[in-house]
Every structure is written in C-alpha cells, then in structure tokens.
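User: Could you check the structure of this?
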Amino acid sequence: MEQIEKRWPGFLLLLFSLGTSLNLFFLNHHLAGAFESGDKNIEWYAVFSKNIFQPTTSYIAESILLPLAAKLIGANDSTQSYRLFCALITISMLPVLAGTAQCFFNHATKAFLLVLGFAVSFTYLSNYQLGFPDPLTISLLMFTALQRRPLYLFLGASLAGLSHFSMSVVALTAVSMLWISLPETSKKARIQMLKSAWCGLIMSRLLLALWFNLFEYKLTTRSDIVFQSSWSLFITRYNQSASAFWLTPGILFLTSYFLIVIYFALKQKTSFALSLIAALSLAYVAHFFTFDGLRVFAVVISCAYALMMATFIETIYPLLVARANYLTPYLSNATQTLTSQKLYIGLGFPTSAVWLFFVSNAADKGLFINELPLVHLRVLDTRLLDYALVAASLLILITAVVPRLRANSLTVFATKIIFWTPVMIIGSQYLRQLLYPNVSFAIWTKVAILTTAMIVVALISKIELSNVVRLVCHNHRSNLLDSLNNLSRQYMVWQKNRLTRKHHQSQRLSKR
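Assistant: Sure, the predicted structure tokens are below.
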C-alpha cells in the first residue's frame, strides 16, 4: 500500500504532462496542413528513411536516429505515417521531461513546477514543425541535462548526437557552461558530468563516421553551408526583421529567462547568471547562421533552459513552502467559502461558459452587432467585443457565486439584463435571417429590438416593478407605507363597526 501511495504522485505527474502535451500539440495551426496529401507535401526525412542504407549527399542524413527507428518499425511507408510517428515523439516530450524531473528531484511537487513552467514558456511545444527530428533531439538533450550518473549522461549525449549531431554539439556546449558554474555542486562532480557527456558525444561522432563510411555517405554539412555563404546573406535576412529575430523564442520565454537570470544575480551567483546569458547568446548565434527559425533556437537552448529552471526551482522551493505555510489559514477559509457555495459554482460556471460560447459564436456568424466598426477594433490581436463578452460572463459567474451580490437587487437586475438581452437580440436576428435573409435591420429597428428585449427580460426575470420603484424612489417609501397603514386601520374600524351593527340587529330580532 505504501509503495502505491509513493508511485501515485508520479503517475499523476505523467498524466498531467501527457494532457498538457496533447493540448499544446493541437494548438499548432499548421497541424492540419501537415497531414494533407499532395505532390508538394513531401516529407524528405521519410524519403531518407526509406533509403537510409543507400548512398546519399543530403545534409539531412546527419540525423539517422529517428529515420532509422521509423525504418525499423515500418513508419516510413508514406508521408502521413511518418508524420504520425513524429507526432507521437512530439507529444512524448513533456512526459519524458516529467519522468526525468521526478528522478532528478525525487519530489513530485518540484517536478510538477518544472513541467508546468516549461510547458507554459517553451514556445516550440505549440509551434513545432512536424517531421523534423527536433522533438527527439530535445527530449534526449533535456534527459542529458538533468542527469547526474555518468552512464546516463553518456547514453543521453550519445543518442542526442545520433539524433542531430551539429545542434547537439552547440546545445551541449551551452549546457556545459551551466554545469561548470552550477551552484552547490562540487568541482569533482562538475568535471565528471562534462567528461561523461562529451565522451558520449564523441562516441556518437565515431558511430556516425562509421555509418557514413559503411553506406558511402558524402554529406554537405551545415557548417559547410555557413562557410560557403557570405556574411551579407545572413545580415540581409536579419535586417529584414530585426525584432522578429530577437522575439523568435517568444516574449514569455524571454521574460522568464531574464527574470531567473536577475534572480541568480541578486543571490550573488554571478558566474551562473553569466553562464545563462552566454547560453542564450549561443542559441541566438546558431539562430543567426541558419534559416530554420524557432526550431534551431529551441533545440540549442532546450537543455540549458531545462537545467536553469530545475536549478531555480530547487533554490526557491523552501521559500515557496514558507509562503504556503503562511497562507494556509487564508487558503483554508477560502476553501470553506468555496465549499459552502459549491451548488452555485456548479450551476454558475457551466451557465456562464455556455452563455459565452453561444454569444461569441453567434457574433462570429453575424447574429449580434458585428456591423459596428468599433466591434472589429482589435487590442492585442483580440476584438473589443470578445473582451466585453468575457467580462460579462465573469460578472454572471461572480454574481451567481458571491452571496452579497446575489442579495443585491440592482446587481441581480443588471446581471439578468446582461444575460438575457444578447440572447433576445440573437433570437431576433436569427428569425430575420430565416424570414428575410437579404434584408438587414435599420438602426431604429435595432433600438426597438433592444428596448423590447430589455422589457421582456424584466418580465421573464420576474422582477416586480414595485421593487424597482422602491429602490429608485427611496425617499417616498415612508409616505407610501404610512398611507397603506392608514388605509388598513380605516378598513379594520369599518369592519368592526359593521360586525357590531349586525350583532345588535340579531339581538333585537331575538327579543321579538
């Protein structure tokens, strides 16, 4: 039983990493085009995989590990099957990082923080180019960076070199600068890590040389292409869009990277902070001398970035634990509050989500107010209408969850208006499309629909007009109540006198 409990956090971590990886994988907007069939949609790595035992001069033959694996399992029969194999490798990047991080920290929470931070900030995970050996190379490099045992360092570096030798050389050079200045690590351990990793890389080069000689490969390497090209070619490409060059890894990646560098600099770990800057500079140099954009940058920086985040989490985790202990009473109160409102949360969250989905999709189909120019105005590549709809859905959710807001008549009235009015307008527009598809509403018609919708909303929401009048005319409340009390007293006196008269009449009749 104890062994199951110890393994369970690791299983949850792998499950979380797999779910996150799948989510990021399908965010790539180029994914659908990768599986389209056509004469131009050829996967050259799949072609190389079919002819991997034949002589070649293509520079892509430097990467033999992934094409060889595809050859052995028969995943190179078509472009689609090869890219499906590459998709499985791409999806496995975060689970590999999760398993490696669990072994590195021997702590599920720290491993979870590493996977979460890497998934959020590493842009390549959702902007990959399917078909390249980069995901396998990145996984092997991250595995190597988070190892301490010499054998695993040797194996990881060897396999990374077979996956893509030239980029592995640059990536291990970057991470070696971090190993040399790694905080709280002995000099002997640093030397051992460097020896194991670089011996593995040398071994991969020897195996590649043997392979090239055995199958008569005559390759033009990437370094040959760089030396044959003039400086003006790379400078011209850089000058075409300098900002795009520097922002290739993404703003979130750069922000997190520099914040961690500043943290280590403030903690007086200057050598490690300088090593981080040198590793990032090396990634930009590799990016400058290639034409592949993000994929080269991501491969080169991946292992250094994973080690940087792991070191940062290891350093800052005690502070996080102390803060968590300080916030425990507040979190307990918040949990109790949320528990008491679980019925309203269970009803409010899906209701607001469905409302947002319905209204936003109707707006995209021209059933709302899409004709107004202001609606099409974009801020941070998002329509102002979308911001307004999200804010309205949050108001609906908060009103449903917070007891004070539910008890406030004006807030409830405004929330119901916000909820039902767009639904009424969309219904009117839908009927107009069905009955008069080629006719659009005039402005006065839209105003009339809006007014009618608000009136109908007030009726279907069962809002009594007397409540609204009482809230608006609060000063006349006492006079109205006094008048009602006087009428009530006069009625009671009249009723009493009537009963008295009836009683006297009945007595006179009985005496006769």
